[in-house]
Write a structure and sequence with these properties.
CATH class of the largest domain: Alpha Beta
Helix content: 25-40%
Shape: globular
Distance between the termini: 7 Å
GO molecular function, one term: glycosyltransferase activity
Strand content: 5-15%
Pfam family, one: Glyco_transf_4
Protein name: D-inositol 3-phosphate glycosyltransferase
Number of strands: 13
InterPro entries: Glyco_trans_1, Glyco_trans_4-like_N
Order of helices and strands: EHEEHHEHEHEHEEHEHEHEHEHEHHH
CATH architecture of the largest domain: 3-Layer(aba) Sandwich
Largest sheet: 7 strands, parallel
Mean pLDDT: 93
Strand order of the largest sheet: 3-2-1-4-5-6-7
Keywords: Glycosyltransferase, Transferase
Low-confidence stretches: none
CATH superfamily of the largest domain: Glycogen Phosphorylase B
């Protein structure tokens, strides 16, 4: 199909798609939206108000419920954030069911919410849903609501596709890509780097412990997602070469990562993909991490090392091997395996197939 496509891109109704990003999902959505518009497609974005105006996209309205005092007094009522998200996606899907086929060729559900999948049978146009996480009960239930489920599923890694196989047996793998123009090769330097949300499942405290054991300084950057965890586990490790430099925009973050000798990636769960791995490789920065989830898919012996999960002693030993790896090999791996071009090619081919 040579004509531009009309794409409704569904993101989080809670977080705007703008820098500094709330997390990897918002960063991925921004990158995908930009890549598609650069190819001439018309993208309309459904996300929390306040998205980056530089994207040049039309924002689909997020409708929130107006509840009476009597309804709010109901002790069985879910939390306000849950209700707001539920109402936003319910209203959106009803709008798309009513007249979506007149405005779009395809809907791409890039959110984690179950309602777009549950209400897909009401649409008269194709719906793509990307699986970004391990299986969740709400989403598994939505997939099984109609047999067969009319949704076309993609997964961000072969690991994630395998995790969903019992419910979604045929998810196509389209890996998250990074803009290799922005995440450009750096010269490396004397420090290690850790980036991501500061939450228990990302394990920044383990990165700090490994860096201390390796005797190398570590700079950490990212949003504080769990204040109590940071206070109890991360802040006591700061000092003596372990520093937190804040929540940075992509330009500052790329410079920080490119200036590092190696990136530490220390998930305490099975990481569905690991966008920070792709970003580091694009900067020519080799990666030393725990062998969890999809990290083993992305890294090769030429650009990274993997330690057993949670083993900071082995991780510290492998750091010294990692910093000696060829930075050109890391960059080449990113260009071949997890570039923005590869991701945009994968999604565009799928959209055209479904729209045809």
């Amino acid at each position: 199909m040579s004509d531009p496509l009309r794409i409704a891109l569904l993101a989080s109704a809670r977080f705007p798609v703008r820098e500094p990003f709330a997390g990897g999902l918002e960063a991925h959505t921004w990158t995908l939206a930009r890549a598609l518009t650069d190819r001439g497609h018309r993208v309309e974005l459904f996300a929390a108000p306040g998205c980056d105006p530089a994207l040049g996209l039309r924002e689909l309205p997020v409708h929130r419920p107006v509840l009476t005092e009597a309804a709010r007094a109901d002790v069985s009522m879910p939390g306000a954030d849950w209700m707001a998200e539920h109402h936003a996606y319910l209203r959106l899907m009803l709008d798309l069911a009513r007249d979506g086929e007149h405005h779009y060729d395809v809907v791409h559900n890039n959110s984690l919410h179950h309602l777009p999948v549950a209400m897909a049978p009401a649409l008269r146009l194709p719906l793509v849903t990307t699986l970004h996480t391990p299986p969740t009960p709400w989403l598994e239930s939505a997939v099984q609501a109609v047999d067969p489920c009319p949704v076309t599923f993609t997964a961000v890694s072969a690991h994630t596709a395998a995790a969903w196989r019992a419910t979604v047996p045929a998810a196509r793998v389209v890996r998250n890509g990074v803009d290799t123009r922005l995440w450009s090769p750096g010269t490396g330097g004397p420090y290690l780097v850790w980036t991501g949300r500061l939450v228990p499942e990302k394990g920044p405290h383990l990165a700090a412990e490994a860096a201390c054991k390796a005797g190398l300084p570590l700079l950490m950057a990212g949003p504080v997602g769990d204040r109590r965890y940071v206070t109890d586990y991360v802040e006591p490790l700061l000092g003596d070469g372990i520093d937190y430099v804040g929540h940075l925009g992509r330009g500052e973050l790329a410079a920080l990562v490119g200036g590092a000798a190696a990136a530490l990636v220390t998930p305490c769960w099975d990481e569905p993909y690991g966008l920070v791995v792709a970003e580091a490789l694009a900067c020519g920065t080799p990666v030393c991490g725990f062998d969890r989830g999809a990290l083993g898919e992305i890294l090769t012996p030429e650009c990274g090392r993997l330690a057993p999960p949670d083993d900071t002693a082995v991780l510290a030993e492998l750091i010294h091997e990692t910093v000696r790896l060829d930075r050109r090999a890391a960059r080449e791996r990113a260009e071949r395996f997890c570039s923005l071009t590869a991701m945009a090619d994968g999604y565009t081919a799928l959209y055209e197939e479904l729209a045809a």
